[in-house]
Amino acid sequence: MSTNARRQFLQTSAALWGAAALPQVWAQGTIRPNERSALIVVDVQNCFVPGGTLPVNNGHEVVPVINRIAPAFENVVVTQDWHTPGHASFASSYPGKKPFETTKLSYGQQVLWPDHCVQGSEDAAVHKDLKVPQAQVILRKGFHKHVDSYSAFEEADRKTATGLAGYLRQRGIRTVFVTGLATDFCVAWTALDAKRLGFETYVIEDACRGIDLNGSVAAAWKQMQAKGVKRIQSSDLALG
Q1: Tens digits of per-residue pLDDT, 69-122?
Q2: What pLDDT does 231 receive?
Q3: DSSP states of 90-109 as a string?
Q4: What pLDDT is recorded for position 26?
Q5: I want to staple 65 with a disulfide (CB 3.0 to 4.6 A). Which of 93, 149, 207, 212 is the partner?
Q6: CA-based nearest residue to 138, from 125, 122, 154
């Protein structure tokens, strides 16, 4: 990444999440998922792990953690970034633009990414070692060509719902536990929307990995804490 591209990306991250570090906040006691709990596994795809088109550092490390905790959950939702070729979030869609620069779309500033998670490609496939056979839903997001989508609940225009909230409510789900990639983008946006929509919301820190440029992970945690999202570790869950 060039110096200018990195600087622009850092500025965008700061604008999204604010600055400042966050003191760690840990849940107290042991948390036991039940029939009204759901595990949300965000974008654990080939594109976001080392060797993919938009890798998160050590992104593959979330897989064994998620595999270990998943059997404690009756309800599991898996999300996939699922972009069209020539998607509006791809730098390649704009002559002269480079990955990690920005452009202005109808809904505001858009970070431009390398082409990634293109529909039907091996790059977009769920990581082969992820073991969540009880998952009832694979929710694909970012498939509208002109709108990006970080959150599993609502696209980046902040108007287009994915339908996940309605699905969870119909199933009687009251609490969600969010895991996956990346902490400071899709995980954080998903958790913030879940909380805003009335779900008790936990993010399992060691089951996530972040981009973490210029303190973006700490800033995301600060934003989530301010909105009442609870930060825990997989060891805080009762798995037996």
Answers
A1: 999 999 999 999 999 999 999 999 999 999 999 999 999 999 999 999 999 999
A2: 97
A3: BGGGSTT--TT-EEEETTEE
A4: 42
A5: 207
A6: 125
Answer yes or no: are the C-beta atoms of 80 and 141 closer than 8 Å. Answer: yes
Residue 35, CA distances (Å) to 143, 155, 196, 207 in order: 30, 28, 21, 21
Q: Which of 47, 81, 115, 141 is catalytic?
A: 141
Please report, in angstroms and rounded to a whole number, the separation of the first and last CA atoms in the chain: 45
43 closest CA partner among 26, 60, 29: 60
Catalytic residue among 43, 81, 115, 148: 43
The answer to whether residue 186 is catalytic is yes
With a CB cutoff of 8 Å and minimum separation 6, the contacts of 78 are: 41, 44, 126, 130, 132, 135, 137, 138, 139
Tokens encoding 97: 């633009």
The tokens of 183 are what? 């902490």
| Residue 45: per-residue pLDDT | 98
Q: How far is CA 111 from CA 99, 160, 163, in A?
A: 8, 19, 24
Q: In angstroms, rounded to a whole number, what is the distance separating the alpha carbons of residues 87 and 108?
A: 16
43 is catalytic: yes
The residue annotated as part of the active site, out of 47, 123, 184, 186, is 186
- Tell me how many degrees the CA angle 201-206-210 measures, rounded to the nearest 5: 85
Q: What amino acid occupies position 130?
A: L
On whether the pTM is more than 0.85, the answer is: yes
Q: Residue 34 and residue 225: Cα distance in Å, rounded?
A: 24
Q: What is the pLDDT of residues 36-51, one digit of tens each?
A: 999 999 999 999 999 9
